[in-house]
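Practice problem: predict the structure.
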Amino acid sequence: MNNLALDSFEHSIVLSILGDAALALENQKAIEEKSKADLIAKNEQLRANLLRSISHDLRTPLTSISGNANILLSSSETMNETKKRELYSDIYNDSLWLINLVENLLSVTRIEDGTMNLHLTTELIDEVVSEALRHVSRQSQEHFLEIVQDDELILVRMDTRLMMQVIINLVDNAIKYTPKGSHIMIHIYQQQQYVYIDVIDDGNGINDEMKEHIFDMFYTGNMKVADSRRSLGLGLALCKSIIKAHHGTIKVLDNHPKGAILRVVLPTEEVDLHE
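Answer:
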C-alpha cells in the first residue's frame, strides 16, 4: 500500500487538476445561469414590448370604433347616406385590423409555447390565395391588386388557415407601406419541386438596412405607414415562423425599377413533420 502513496509533487499535480476541474465546473455553471437569466430577461423584454405596443395600438382603433358608433347612434337621423357609409366603412376597417392583430397575437403565442401544430391538406395554391384576398384590408380598393399564375394547377401541402394568414399579412404589408394607386401583384409559379409566391409592389421599396431586420419580432424600422397607424411588427415575423414550419423560406428582394418583392418558397412535396 505504501508504494501507492503519492509524493508531494504528484500530490500537488492532482490538487491542481482537481482545482482546474472545479473551476471549469463553476465557470460552466455560471455560464448556464447567465444564459438562463439572459433568456428570462429577453422574454420579459419581449413581453414588455408587446404589452406596450398593444396598449397603444388597441386604443387607437377602439377609440375610433366607439367614436364613430356614438356619432351614428346620436346623429344618424340628420346624417346623409354618404357620411353614414364613410363611418360604417371606418368601423369595418378598424374591426378588420383588430381581428388581424388578434390572429397574429394568438399565432405568435402558439409558436412561442410550442403548441402550433400544422393541420396539413393538399390544396390548390391559387384558391388559397384568392380566399385570403377576400380578407385583406379594405384599403386594397385604393390599390391595383391582381393575381398572376403561370401554371393552371399548382398543388401544395399546407395548413390552409396559417397559409392564408401569411398571404393576408404580406398583402396588407404591401398596402400599408405603399401610396394609394400603387400596383400590387401576387405572382404564383413553380420551378422544379418548389412553388414561389411573390408579393410585388411598386412603392418606395425597402432599404438594405431594413432588409436585415424586417422579419424580426417587433421590428418596424422607420418606414412610414400610409394610414399613419403604427405596426406591432408581428406580421412578417409570424410569416417567417409559419413558412419555416412548412420547410419553406421567405425573403425580401428589390423590385425593378422600384418597389419590393416579398418571396415565399414552399416545397410541393409532402411536408414531413414531427409534432
